[in-house]
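User: Hi! Is it possible to get a structure for several chains at once, not just one? Here's what I have:
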Amino acid sequence: MLFFTQCFGAVLDLIHLRFQHYKAKRVFSAAGQLVCVVNPTHSLKYAPTRCAAAQTSAEQGILSPCHHHEAVHDPQLVPCTCPLFSCPWEGHLEVVVSHLRQTHRINILQGAEIVFLATDMHLPAPTDWIIMHSCLGHQFLLVLRKQEKYEGHPQFFATMMLIGTPTQADNFTYRLELNRNQRRLKWEATPRSVLECVDSVISDGDCLVLNTSLAQLFSDNGSLAIGIAITTSKVHNAEAEI
Amino acid sequence: MLFFTQCFGAVLDLIHLRFQHYKAKRVFSAAGQLVCVVNPTHSLKYAPTRCAAAQTSAEQGILSPCHHHEAVHDPQLVPCTCPLFSCPWEGHLEVVVSHLRQTHRINILQGAEIVFLATDMHLPAPTDWIIMHSCLGHQFLLVLRKQEKYEGHPQFFATMMLIGTPTQADNFTYRLELNRNQRRLKWEATPRSVLECVDSVISDGDCLVLNTSLAQLFSDNGSLAIGIAITTSKVHNAEAEI
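Assistant: Yes, the chains can be modeled jointly so their relative placement is included. Here is the combined structure:
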């Protein structure tokens, strides 16, 4: 009996996933775009993450592994870049992706253009939606965060970070696009490196920022579809010159 | 002597204007785009404007001339749509433009694509930057407002309104574009009619919203260049289908 109940649950989940996939396809009608349904994770905002600890050390005049990874004993080791959890892991930049997949169960998607479908946008802040995106021979971390910068007024912040060095990040441009209800919002920028803290990118507001009413206008039944594209910076510069 | 001083002042102003024009041209390098330098006006936010008065009446159950212009004694008369000042004027929709030009000294610009260069972005809220834009046989009102929705945290809100009816407004799409420091932000939407209050569009947040840090990233020496383009909605829909 338990077996049948579980099977039925799995089938229902599949139907739900298929329905959400269809909705996102309808929004981004370009054929061949990969749609990824991303479920929220309650953000452990107040937990002392490595990043926060590193920032505190930096304020106290101690070099932080987050902003100054040269200060780590082995200069080739970087701390865990997962924005969700406090994690004592550190390792080489090349193995950050497998650590994020295996330990933090962050999905990875292939493709130049994908659609990130964040579900349950109504959940209270702090909440994060995270995936990795593999493209142009590199891996990127996409973070959508619901956060209350001003008490009682949650906002959504979306940014893309390269799992690589700041110098490597300078070679790319990422684009986030929202398109619904006869409104379109596009944000294009150079990704930051995961060696910089995602928290500081968001607190600086140097990312796509949405207030709740705009997020609702762009959402469909509580889900927000974000079209993502990554190009090399040369293409971006050529466009700017046209 | 006074004559020479004034002449010298005028020449300095011209050089300053030319310099700002050059800066905006450098940002939006497309040839032939008209650049309009727009100076700020301190917004009389707390004055009982017709709009605010109309909204109070609406709350009290009285039909408001702002949201329900059918309720004006002569249904063809509309109140002054200037978002800056309380003004007792009312007239036909066709003469709103000449009223705004003559009484409120709001500049009007011709051209499908123009660059709106808002100066002195550092001025405290509430401040407005306003021009009219004549394009595709219609006139539009562009409003950039600096306002503190959350005390101590000023934000910038930009929207475009058709000086016409809501039905006419549905035929157009406007685009606002910021482009600087390897970042690009584009907002596309259907303009609202000036018969709706600009104040409610901004309080709903259904417009381009910039926090102070993003506004600084897009500004050049205290001036913010916004590229503006208006198209008919058919073009917009065709683009969305591609």
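Residues 45-72, 235-242 of chain B have pLDDT under 50 and may be disordered. Chain B has seven helices and 15 strands.

User: Great, thank you!
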